[in-house]
Amino acid sequence: MSKLTVDSTSDITPIDDYFPDESLLSLCSIPWSANIDNVLAIGFLPAHLDTQDKRKFLSDVQNFYWDNPYLFKYYPNQIYQRCILDNEVSNVMKFCHSEACEGYFSSR
After folding, report:
1. In angstroms, what CA-CA distances link 25 with 17, 20, 32, 98?
2. CB proximity list for 71: less than 8 A, separation 6 or greater
């Protein structure tokens, strides 16, 4: 907390509203793929998982492939798709709908 200077002649201590490090209370969002990235890149398993969740997580991780700095997911139709972060979604959608191949070419 901030240091308060006390005036010995006053009984009321003034409140100092200045907070020097505003980033102390800032929150950062962790990407959805952080645990998968950690397992594939360095082999670090999340500590909060119990045995059943760990087994399920490791089963799911087998469908992913790490090619630094990108994460890909393998699908049963033998296609690898690059995983994107939440903040990249709008850019990808904008690119797909505004470039030379914009539009839809089939019902799918």
Report:
1. 15, 11, 22, 39
2. 33, 36, 37, 40, 64, 65, 82, 83
**Separation of alpha carbons 68 and 42, rounded Å:** 12
Q: Strands 64-67 and 70-75: what pairing?
A: antiparallel
| Average pLDDT of span 25-47 | 80
How far is it, in rounded angstroms, from Cα 100 to Cα 103? 9
Domain residue extents for the chain: 32-98
CB proximity list for 33: less than 8 A, separation 6 or greater: 71, 83, 85
pLDDT in tens, 46-104: 888 889 999 999 999 999 998 888 899 999 888 899 998 888 888 888 887 777 666 66
Tokens of 62: 């087998």
